[in-house]
Write a structure and sequence with these properties.
The chain has 281 residues and is an alpha+beta fold. It has two domains: 198 residues, Jelly Rolls (Sandwich), CATH 2.60.120; 31 residues. It contains four helices and 15 strands. Strand 1 and strand 2 form a beta hairpin. 21% of the residues are buried.
Length: 281
């Protein structure tokens, strides 16, 4: 019986070693020839941690992590203009496609939002310097992770013409984990600008038009820089909440379970038969 048991155990070891080793080698080969950033260029990865803003220039707005976008407006601009009345800007650049990876932000790491906005008209209520009464709204910028506002910034320090705007924020403990299913990133821009241009005589006009224009990310300047922890790209982190793949998801798990079962049968069942034979004798 001892000889039979030893042979069964040796057989299990000999069969299992090449299978596990072969699987590991294949995985290593795949990792060596595959650039993870090329699998889906619009998803975040080790070399792509900047969110870019895009629009068709009319009514469609989106964002992703690729610095290139063929459907972006040809002039790389989103713009609205009105002679009289209020322009209501409330655009949200949600990531499209939906984010498919879990992200771990660096605690106390800096988020940097960089925008370039052109303005004409009035946007401050009741300051006696334009037509706004209670119908205007100064610039507000919000970075979202799903339904969670990571940072919301009121930006009153803007003027007529082009306004380079930089907003920074430090990641808190509650903002570290961005799960793919609940934290799709987006950037929201809100403002209400009013114009009062009118014809005063057949040859003269008075007042100002309302204009809001936003440079998009075609030149790379408009962007959201995210402090993504390099540990986010580890396979263990991507596997789930506990950072490790489940046992049944590990390579060779089912095979090894079958080998263990056969080994147990080879050792246990013959011993039971011999015990029964001894009792009959």
């Amino acid at each position: 019986m001892r000889a039979r048991s030893a042979m069964a155990i040796l057989l299990a070891l000999l069969v299992s070693v090449p299978v596990v080793g072969g699987t590991t080698t294949a995985m290593q080969d795949d990792e060596e020839i595959t650039d993870p950033c090329m699998e889906d260029p619009k998803q975040p990865c080790e070399n792509q941690t900047i969110l870019y803003l895009w629009s068709n220039g009319q009514s469609t707005f989106w964002s992703h992590f690729n610095a290139n976008e063929t459907n972006n407006a040809a002039d790389n601009m989103y713009s609205q203009e009105k002679n009289q009345g209020v322009i209501n800007i409330d655009q949200r650049f949600s990531m499209n496609p939906q984010m498919s990876k879990r992200l771990n932000m660096t605690l106390d790491g800096e988020v940097r939002i960089v925008l370039n906005i052109y303005l004409e008209g009035d946007w401050t209520n009741n300051d006696n310097q334009g037509p706004c009464t209670n119908d205007c709204e100064e610039l507000n910028v919000t970075l979202w992770a799903g339904a969670t506002a990571i940072v919301r910034q009121h930006v009153p320090q803007v003027s007529t013409g082009w306004n380079p705007i930089t907003i920074t924020h430090r990641i808190t403990q509650e903002q570290v984990l961005w799960d793919a299913s609940t934290a799709n990133p987006s950037i929201q821009i809100e403002m209400k600008v009013k114009g009062d241009r009118q014809q005063t005589t057949p040859i003269t006009v008075s007042g100002e038009i309302a204009n809001f224009s936003l440079k998009l990310s075609g030149d790379g300047n408009t962007r959201v820089e995210l402090p993504i922890d390099p540990a986010s790209w580890d396979a263990a982190f991507q596997a789930g909440e506990d950072g490790m793949p489940k046992a049944e998801e590990q390579p060779g798990f089912l095979f090894m379970a079958a080998v263990a079962t056969m080994t147990l049968a080879a050792v246990y069942l013959p011993s039971r038969e011999e015990e029964s034979q001894d009792r009959r004798n």
